[in-house]
User: What shape does this take?
Amino acid sequence: MAAALTRTLLDVPEALVELLIIGAVVAVFVALHAVVQRRFKTEVLRRHNDVAGYLFSAVGVLYAVLLGFSVVVVWQKYDATVANVQAEIDAAGDLYHVVDGFALADRAKIRSDLAQYAQTVIGVEWPAMERDQNVPDTGTTLLDDATYRVDDALPTNLRQVNAQQAAIANAQRLLDARRQRLIYAAPAVPVILWFALIAGALAMVAFCYIFGVENRPAQLLMTAILVGLIAILFAVIYEFATPFSGSVTISSEGWSYLAQRLPEIR
Assistant: This one.
């Protein structure tokens, strides 16, 4: 199971679309700034530079904290999701292995449920999570059946007793990891936080508009850099907030590897 790694994949077409959107947003805000420059003389805007600079610094610090906090939170969730997916794969493989100590009939039924569960995760659950849809109950039913058979087994010797104890522990790990995966599939950024992020971004750009600078093309370049950086961080937050969908997504490669290896496990 050490080789069953869950990779993070980059969907290049979706990433290109996001870059185009970022470019369009930058172009719109720079064009709007150019209109403001034509409407107001530099001398008029420069009168407010001292006050605007002080307020811009204060607002910038507050917004940087909020933006940085959001990036860290979604990254931590994404990293935890990758680890949890691997833990679920490991638990499924370990459970499949330890039931080798069960009676033949019980072992065959439990392994059949686990093999079907792996195929369900790959063919049903992962596509549903990629489309941000609800995951069907098929996988839950299969795990419930396997867990019931583990608990209901009647060991007749010490080897089977030890196997059942190990199987119960692995079944609990598997159930916990599955529940966590379904929880992590939900977006990590609530609507109110998106509102705060967008409002803060508009405030930052608005401050750029009321500064008066002699070199106006350079000022437009600074606006483009600020808007572009904020837009890129927005894209990062959006992508990592939904770890199973978007252009950056956790793949099901680990489950595919496990499904191929299950028949070889004794």
The mean pLDDT is 88.
